[in-house]
Amino acid sequence: QVQLVESGGGLVQAGGSLRLSCAASGRTFSTYTMVWFRQAPGKEREFVAARSWNGGSSYYTDSVKGRFTISRDNAKNTVYLQMNSLKPEDTAVYYCATGGPPYVFRIKLRPDEYEYWGQGTQVTVSS
């Protein structure tokens, strides 16, 4: 079993920054891809970013490229999402997730492809 706990959400003005954290426990964190998704009111959950198990590779959805950075600290079992130049359209509940197989970095964009999810953290960007 895996537990994921997000933190760091809040209210920020457009153009501002936030850093989200996701602390993992329950299995070998360092062997699995970690991802962030988000879900805005009335919309489907959408992929945001992924970081490979060893931190060497990453992938972003086009709308956040150049503004968001996903990173991980395997010693702390934590993945981060640094969000800069925030826009009102970034307003959503942000979720971290993970799933197998281990030691493989495969971009999976659908929520149903991930086994484990955190509870989410709200990010609100005011204009």
Question: What does this protein look like?
Answer:
This protein has 127 residues and is mainly beta. Helix content is 0%, strand content 46%. The chain contains no helices and eleven strands. Strands 2, 4, 5, 6, 9, 10 and 11 form a seven-stranded mixed sheet that branches. A four-stranded antiparallel sheet has the order 1-3-8-7, with no helix packed on it. Strand 4 (34-39) and strand 5 form a beta hairpin. The mean pLDDT is 95.
What would a concise description of this structure say?
The chain is mostly beta strands and 127 residues long.
Features:
127 residues; mainly beta; seven-stranded mixed beta sheet; globular
Mean pLDDT: 95
**What is the terminal-to-terminal distance?**
40 Å
Helix content: under 10%
Q: Return the structural class.
A: mainly beta
Number of strands: 11
Outline: globular
Q: What is the N-to-C succession of helices and strands?
A: EEEEEEEEEEE
Number of helical runs?
0
What percentage of amino acids are in beta strands?
A: over 45%
**Low-pLDDT windows of residues:** none
What is the oligomeric state here?
Answer: single chain
Gyration radius (Cα, Å) is 13 Å
* Major pleated sheet: 7 strands, mixed
